[in-house]
TrEMBL record:
The keyword Metal-binding does not apply. PANTHER family: LEUCINE-RICH REPEAT-CONTAINING PROTEIN 18-LIKE (PTHR48051:SF42), PTHR48051. Residues 238-247 have a biased composition (Polar residues). Residues 223-256 are annotated as: Disordered. Keywords: Leucine-rich repeat, Repeat. This is LRC18 protein. GO terms for cellular component: cytoplasm. The keyword Endoplasmic reticulum does not apply. It comes from Erithacus rubecula. Transmembrane segments: none annotated. Pfam families: LRR_8.
C-alpha cells in the first residue's frame, strides 16, 4: 500500500512499532499505537507478540485478525473507538487478559463469539457504545469481572447470570431501553384527600381527641404567623422599563 494515509490507513513499520513500546512503572511493556490512522491490524506487530499491553484505540480498525492468538502474554488490550463489528473466536485464547476495552465500536450481538467467555481472568470488560441488542447469558461465567460497561446499546434485558456475577462492583447499563428505566416513578401525592368532612362540638370530644385537635390547630397557627424569609429572586428596583425609542430599535441590538 502507498505510504501515508490511504485506503489501507497508515502503514506501520516494525521500526515505528518498536519505537512505540513503553515500559510502565510495573515493568509491563505497552505497545502504544493510539490515534495512528490504522485501518488494518499491522502484521509486523507479530515481532512484538511478547508485550503485555496493547493500545490500538482511536483508529479505523474494522477487524481483529485471528493472529491475535499469538499475543499470549497480553494482560491489557484497549481497542476503544474503532469500527470493529465482530471479534475473532481466537480472542478466547488470551487467558491472561484482565482488561478488555471495546467501547465505541460497531459490535453486534452476532459479533461476540462464544469464546469470549473463556477469558476467565477478565476483571474489566467495556462493551459500551456499541450495537448490542442482547448479551450472551454465558458472560455470567466471567467470575472475576469487577467492572462491566454495557451503556449506550439497545439492550432490553440483562441476564440474571450477569446481574449475579460474584465479584461485580460496577455495572453501567445507562441509556439502554431497559423496562426498569422506561417508567418514571409516579409522583407521590403528599396531600391527603378526604371524601367527607364531619364537624363536631368541643363538648362531644373525649379529652385525648380534644388535646390532639388543639395541638394540631396551634401548630397550624404557628405556620400562618411565620413571616416569610427574603426571596431568593434578584431584585432590580432601579431598573426602568424600556422607553419607546428602545422598543423601536430593539432589532438593532437584539442578539440573534
Amino acid at each position: 500500500p502507498p505510504k501515508g494515509k490511504g485506503p489501507q490507513g497508515k502503514r506501520i513499520t516494525l521500526k515505528m512499532a518498536k519505537n512505540s513500546v513503553r515500559v510502565l512503572f510495573n515493568g509491563r511493556r505497552r505497545l502504544e499505537l493510539s490515534k495512528m490512522g490504522i485501518a488494518i491490524f499491522p502484521k509486523c506487530l507479530l515481532e512484538l507478540a511478547d508485550v503485555e499491553e496493547i493500545d490500538l484505540s482511536r483508529n479505523m480498525l474494522r477487524k481483529i485478525p485471528n493472529i491475535i492468538e499469538k499475543f499470549q502474554n497480553l494482560v491489557w488490550l484497549d481497542l476503544h473507538s474503532n469500527q470493529i463489528d465482530e471479534l475473532p473466536p481466537e480472542i478466547g485464547t488470551l487467558k491472561n487478559l484482565t482488561f478488555l476495552n471495546l467501547c465505541n465500536n460497531k459490535l453486534t450481538t452476532k459479533g461476540l463469539p462464544d469464546e469470549l467467555t473463556q477469558l476467565r481472568n477478565l476483571r474489566t470488560l467495556n462493551l459500551g457504545l456499541n450495537c448490542l441488542e442482547t448479551i450472551p447469558t454465558t458472560l455470567g461465567s466471567l467470575k472475576e469481572l469487577i467492572e462491566l460497561g454495557l451503556f449506550d446499546n439497545s439492550l432490553t434485558i440483562i441476564p440474571k447470570s450477569v446481574k449475579k456475577l460474584p465479584k461485580i462492583e460496577r455495572m453501567n447499563v445507562k441509556r439502554n431501553p431497559l423496562p426498569e428505566f422506561a417508567k418514571e416513578e409516579e409522583p407521590i401525592d403528599t396531600v391527603k384527600r378526604v371524601e367527607s368532612l364531619y364537624l363536631v362540638e368541643k363538648k362531644d370530644l373525649c379529652p385525648i381527641c380534644l388535646q390532639t385537635c388543639q395541638g394540631e390547630r396551634s401548630e397550624l397557627h404557628k405556620l400562618e404567623n411565620m413571616t416569610p424569609g427574603p426571596s431568593d429572586k434578584p431584585s432590580f428596583p432601579l431598573l426602568t422599563t424600556p422607553n419607546s425609542t428602545a422598543r423601536d430599535n430593539q432589532e438593532e441590538w437584539r442578539m440573534k
